[in-house]
Every structure is written in C-alpha cells, then in structure tokens.
Amino acid sequence: MNDELKYKWHSIYGQILFDRKLMAAWKQVEKNKGCGGIDMETIETFKSREAEKIEDILQELKKKDYKPTPVKRVYIPKKNGDKRPLGIPVIKDRIIQQSVVNVLSPKFEDGIFHKCSCGYRPGRGIERVMQIIMWYVEHGYHHIYDCDIKGFFDNIPHKKLMKVLNKYIADGTVLDIIWSWLKSGYMEEGKYMESVSGTQQGGVISPLMSNIYLNELDWELEKEGIKFVRYCDDFLLFAKTEEEIRRAGEIAKKVINSLGLEISIAKTRFVDFESQDFEFVGFSFRHWRERKRDGSRYFMVTPTEKSLKDFKRKIKKATLKKLTLSKEVWVERVNAIIRGKVNYYLNPFKAIEANREYGCNSHCYLNAFSSELQALDRYTRQRLRVAMIHEGATVRKGMAMKHRWNNEYFCKINLIPSNWYYNHIRTGYTMEQYIEKQKERNRKAVERGKKRLGKEYYDKRRLAAIAQCRTLATT
After folding, report:
1. pTM over 0.70
2. Among 74, 228, 70, 253, which residue's Cα sits nearest to residue 149?
3. Which residues contact 158 (CB under 8 A, 6 or more apart)?
4. Distance between CA atoms of 166 and 385, rounded to whole angstroms?
C-alpha cells in the first residue's frame, strides 16, 4: 500500500539504542566488507577495537550528538563503458544505517512493499523476477514495456522522498537522521560537494530508500490493474494487446514524472514478444517460435552476451600466470566463479519449477546456451594449463599440455565444468556421463577432421609426428 498509515510508527530511534543491536549491525557491515570512508577507518582497524567503538557509538546516539560524515566519492566502470559514482560512508555511519534498516525493513515488508517488487529485499531476488516474467509470458501477456529510470539513484528529490517517509514514520529523530544522511555531501579530490538530490549508491540505507520511493509507482500500477515486475529502478509492464501496453506505458511515465524522475529514452522500448526479444537482469528472453518437427511453440531464455563475457573476464582474472599456486588452489579459485555464475544462470529453471507447483507448465527451452558453456569450459582449461606450468608459461606450452591435462584430468582434480554443473543441477547428470560424452564428442570431431582433410593429409610421417608430440606431452 502507498496510502498514509492511520497509526504511524513511533519510537524507532529507541529500538536501535542497544549495544547488542549495534553489534549485530556491525557484524553485517563486516560481512559485507568494502573499503573505508574518508576517515581512513577500515574494517580491520574497527574490528581490533570493536567493543570500545560500539560503546562510543551508543553513547553518541543516546546523547543525540551524532552527525554523519561526508561520504567518499569513487567511480566504478559500467558495462557500457561509462563510470558509476559510488558514495562510501565511514564505518560508523554504515553501522548506524544498518541499525535503522534492521528496524525499518521488517515493517515495510509487512504489507507496505508490493509483491512484484523484487530488488534488495529479503527472500526475493532474481528467481522471483524470473518467476513473474515466466508466468505472464506463459499466460499470453506478450506485449511488454521495458523501462529504465534515468539516473535514478542520483536524481531522487530529497523533499519528495521525505514526504513519502512521513506517510509511515512518526519518529522525528529518525527522520532527521535520514535527512542528514541525504544531505551529508561527499568528498571528491579533496573538495567537499553538497548533495542536492539522490541517495548515495554505496550506502547501506540507499536500497531501502529506493524501494520506499518507488513503492509509490508499484501501487499506482496496481490500482490501474497493470501487470508488472520491478527490480530496483528497472521494470517491465505486461499486457495482452498493443493498446493496453501503450496505455500502461503512459501511466507509468506520468507517475514517474510526478516523482520528479525521468524515463531513460535510450533504454526504454515496447516489445512484442511474438517477434521481438528483450533483456532483463542479465538474461536474454528470445521470442516465441515454432518447432519444425511438430509446430509446437516455445521460447528461450539465455544469459546475455555481456554476462557471458563477464564470466570469461572473471576466469581470466583468477588465472593470472604470474602467480605461483598449487593445482588445488587454482581449481578452488576457478570453481568459486563457476558455481556463482552457473547458480545465477539456473534462476530460470528454478522459476519454472516454482511456477509448475502452481499449475503453470513451461514452454521455455533452457539448453540454448550449452555451446557457450562448453566454450567457456575449454577456455577455463586452457587458462589453467598455462597457469599450472609456472616456469616460462606461454599459451604455446599450454597447448602442448592439452593431451596430458585433458578434460578427464581436470575432472579428476575436481574442476567443475560449467556445462556439467548446469545440467547436473537440472537433471542429475553425473560426472561419469559427462566425461564419456566429451570423449565421444572429441572422437567424432577427429573423425570429421580426417574426413574433411582427406586421407592423404594423415600420411605415415604426419601420424608419427603426432604420436611423438603426444609422447612428449604425457611423459
């Protein structure tokens, strides 16, 4: 709901004035890691005197002497080549923000936030996003409005946000602290800059504030009977006809403008899923099509090209040949990346299984990127071959070890092939089955190569040379 509460929340400030709650907030901040703010305090230095520092924060809050410190402005690269500004608060501010979040978040989760808002919420995430999208696509909502809000975090009007907060919170002290966080400013290249609008990305409180503000949009869409799913500032609208989706788009635009925000024209478009694809939360949704053999309809969901490139980039970063590590450590470094990425890619499968429990059968084909995963596995093995040589490692030397350190070898030293792991979770596909299938695939590839090149290519001299290379690689 986005109506003003009849009985607003009082005494929120008093709920954080306990050393155990501040300590619990500190442990969450510690777990999230991250660098320190402008006061040079780090996670490590704070931890060395955590009990003393938590007591100091508690006394400061009890005396109501707390004033936030300006955040440290840093920039991180975006996928499109631009840079995203982040504001890094000092450790003390992060602890107090986390304490406020711990009190407010359960209250907003209890009937205030909409069920189709999925970003930065406990128990909701990408799987829930996929579940909603799949449900609507399967039920004929093929007209989609793919929308992005321009510079959302940087452009939230402070006064409008406080007006929304006042609909739920009656504790003036907490409202004053939130206002001071919004207005704390930032330090960049040694200069202090005021915060005119927006919430600092990088702050603990920022995700909650963004969801509270866009909760206004969620419930206005609900009142108009519009189907939607939102993940932070990105959202999709669904309709069964072009006329309905055009109307939904106009309503969304009107609400967003009333919030003092603007739609990003470059990232917003109407999609007819019967013939057009769209991307959302790292997945590419490929439109409905018909199978040649029986005319049955299906669509596909695959990781975006950017996501697969990011997978490859992380593998490369984890296998730098300048490092000298044991084989076990190399494999452990790579396996962590593979598990994380493949578990993310499994979200469509998990969503389909969840929807099936509610009687929604799926027409989604999930094996459409098997060849991409196989290519990533080949790339990973080659990177490891070079990395494990240690002395004078080169790509050429890594290729020479291809027969000795083959696919079966890496499986025996517990490397997780991404293609196997993806299918293992979905179907129970065993490692033995995977190894046999890879052997058969390699054998057929060799046979095709022989057939393509002709018998005269593989004369006695060339076969002897190949045998010699294999002997050198396996000794």
Report:
1. yes
2. 253
3. 179, 182, 183, 195, 197
4. 60
Assign 23 a pLDDT band (cuts: 50, 70, 90).
very high
* Residue 187 parent element (H or E): strand 186-188
Distance CA 8, CA 170 (A): 6
Can you tell me the distance from the alpha carbon of 427 to that of 288, in angstroms, rounded to the nearest whole number? Answer: 24
Residue 454: its pLDDT value, please?
63
Q: Which residues contact 341 (CB under 8 A, 6 or more apart)?
A: 307, 311, 314, 418
Q: Which two tokens stand for residue 375?
A: 């290519």
Whether 1 has a pLDDT exceeding 70, the answer reads: no
* 326's tokens: 């044991």
Q: Indicate the residue type of 146.
A: D
Tokens found for residue 75: 């920039």
* Predicted confidence (pLDDT) per residue in 140-173, tens digit: 999 999 999 998 999 999 999 999 999 999 999 9
| C-beta separation of 181 from 97 below 8 A | yes
How do residues 441-473 score in pLDDT, each as one tens digit?
888 877 777 777 665 666 677 777 777 666 655
Candidates 257, 291, 289, 258; CA nearest to 274 is 289
C-alpha dihedral (21, 23, 27, 30), degrees to nearest 10: 130
CA distance 149 to 268: 9
The pLDDT of residue 79 is: 64
